[in-house]
């Protein structure tokens, strides 16, 4: 990576070596970088949706970056679906991605909850209320399509700064400030700081934990549930615009359909046994054993009598993963060298689809804090390096309350839908079906949280993309109308 700052011989920090993924590809390093307008450079580790959104933001804000992704292909077809709620879609709209995302997403307009015998105990229109309150339905995406769209909509100069087959093995400081990231293929990259967007198995987080003194918890994540997912061709048993769930003791089946991808995604949540080892690696045999259990194979898929057993032979892809839960404390960064966003900093169960939305809000907050601080520091490299630690602290302080709210909501709903005990079952089966309760929860809990959604303060748009009954707490920065009209006139628009 070409860098305005010199790249002297790296001084190793206490060593952390990943050494998990083999990498034999060496990427050409001679590509001319995108000209930055801010005097910093960021090494983004992780090319998932959060890392690519950071690349979009930095590209628009004039922040120099390089993105390192361990997979050979950015949009590898792994994982299942992703849900963006209005405050997440609003961020994407500010980045100019709304039309592209709506072309691949499906709006969720209703939900049906059933018992294992196929009896519907709640039909909710809360997604419709979400649109009334915030101007758009929640949107369901196939993960691979979302990543592909985020990558392909980057300008060529930004795409040239994305390198695949890059497994990070160590992160080191360099004399005079800055960092060097070493990859398993022998390549290295230098920058001002490293942004860890590398998910639940974050190398950057492990490095921070290895360097940080107590009271940072060595293992902040706990695992109480697992998620078995599989995809199917789009079946007529469930409307594409509807979410479908089956609730049972220690089990929940959730089905989301994406009509634009002609795929529906099935998610089976289950409570893990008390003796489950966090180090256990699930296998295909584990998946088949779970699916063959009578309490799982008989679960209904919609109201037509189709069951999991009937649909399983039609599966396109499947997988199983433990569901970690936790928030890294007390910090999400190390000095002025490393900072975490998304699942690398906090992990929630995906029952209500908040994970990516939380990661996007992290990117917004961090980008705001860094760009505003660097702008105020001027051309002084010493001031930039000396003040990044404060910018990282302000970012976490701004995000922590919202993260804790989403963490609690996500965990609560997982336990509610899996009937963790009689109290959760009572609330789910007796209280939730009472007319108006779902509306009350949207208006008093969900909407106030979404209304606090952040926006990039340094990216101006022509107009607010979404307006509803509930006003956004933070206004979208708008283009000066006169200047904008003149620009359009000059361009012939």
UniProtKB/TrEMBL annotation:
Cofactor dependency: FAD
- Record keywords: FAD, Flavoprotein, Oxidoreductase
User: What are the recorded GO MF terms, alphabetically?
Assistant: FAD binding; monooxygenase activity
Q: InterPro entries annotated for this entry?
A: FAD-bd (IPR002938), FAD/NAD-bd_sf (IPR036188), FAD_mOase_fung (IPR050562)
Q: Where in this chain does the record put each FAD-binding domain?
A: 40-208, 331-379
Lineage top rank: taxon: Eukaryota
Question: Which Pfam family, an example, fits this chain?
Answer: FAD_binding_3
Q: Which family does it belong to?
A: Belongs to the paxM FAD-dependent monooxygenase family.
Q: What is this protein called?
A: Podospora anserina S mat+ genomic DNA chromosome 3, supercontig 1
The species this protein belongs to is: Podospora anserina (strain S / ATCC MYA-4624 / DSM 980 / FGSC 10383) (Pleurage anserina)
What is the taxonomic lineage of the source species?
Answer: Eukaryota, Fungi, Dikarya, Ascomycota, Pezizomycotina
